[in-house]
Design goal:
About 30% of the residues lie in helices and about 30% in strands. It has 3 domains: about 90 residues, D-Maltodextrin-Binding Protein, domain 2; about 80 residues, D-Maltodextrin-Binding Protein, domain 2; about 80 residues, Alpha-Beta Plaits, CATH 3.30.70.260. Strands 1, 2, 3, 4, 5 and 11 form a 6-stranded mixed sheet that branches. It is built from 9 helices and 15 strands.
Length: about 270
């Protein structure tokens, strides 16, 4: 089974792919989210894992736009608690470390830890957490360390010097599972929608009223500008509804003249 991910082997995307598809999954790494969807377009694979939002840093707007523009179905979601590890060559001592590499977001997530334990170490940004681990391994230099997930340490056979060094333990990333050959999923209870309302007072309120009247809970409401239409917006919405309930909800929304498209209908995955 071939699965496209953003990032390289050992990344959090890789970890999620293994969790969803199993250890035998064959990973197709891509440097950008655009390249992930490029692989789907070229039929190099029918499956992809993409991060969509983080509990601390919010939505990844680029991914929302890519999902909408390509319309490849979302077939599942998975939440991953982001646990960062300090990783170095085997037998490295913490006193050896003078340079620490990682993605800028990972460095920011561990700022308090770094201030307390490595105030004099230089923090150097890298494009990928797992890539920073590979870089440290290839350097062979014990003065270097990286911050990444546990899977990265295992993938590149390096040592974890300190575990779970992230400052905020309530740090979760939500990932989407994309399948271009999606079949009908039984017992769905969640859906991702994109809605464009009329440019008139109360248009969005009418949509939200439709959710309330049907007793449907919204778990996400994200606005994005419509390219080419200044000051016009579309809304990405996640709802706790599926099957017949979702069908009736969509009928209600469209009856008000609102454009709505379903990006995916799937089974909700609870937070860890």
């Amino acid at each position: 089974m071939r699965v496209a991910i953003q990032g390289q082997l050992g990344s959090f995307h890789h970890q999620v792919a293994k969790t969803w598809f199993g250890d035998d999954v064959h990973i197709l790494p891509a440097e950008t989210f655009g390249e992930v969807f490029g692989m789907l377009n070229r039929h190099e694979t029918t499956l992809a894992i993409v991060a969509i939002e983080n509990s601390l840093y919010g939505s990844i707007n680029e991914v929302y736009d890519l999902v909408e523009s390509h319309r490849y179905p979302i077939v599942g979601e998975i939440y991953l608690r982001i646990e960062q590890q300090l990783i170095a060559l085997p037998n490295t001592k913490t006193t050896d470390i003078t340079h620490i590499y990682s993605h800028p977001v990972a460095l920011a997530q561990c700022e308090n830890y770094l201030d307390a334990h490595f105030p004099n170490a230089e923090r150097i940004e890298h494009h990928d957490t797992a890539g920073s681990v590979e870089f440290v391994k290839n350097s062979g230099d014990k003065s270097m360390a990286a911050i990444a997930g546990r899977v990265a340490a295992d993938t590149y056979s390096l040592a974890i010097l300190h575990e779970n060094i992230e400052d905020n333990k309530a740090n979760f990333t939500r990932f989407l599972v994309i399948d271009t050959n999606a079949k009908t999923i039984a017992n769905t209870n969640k859906a991702s929608l994109v809605i464009q309302t009329d440019n008139k007072p109360g248009a969005l309120a009418n949509v939200l009223t439709a959710f309330a009247d049907r007793g449907v809970n919204l778990t996400k409401l994200q606005s994005r500008p419509i390219i080419g239409k200044a000051w016009r917006y579309k809304f990405y919405i996640d709802v706790e509804a599926g099957g017949e309930q979702l069908k009736h909800l969509l009928d209600d929304i469209r009856a008000n003249g609102t454009s709505v498209a379903v990006l995916g209908e799937y089974q909700a995955n609870p937070l860890p």
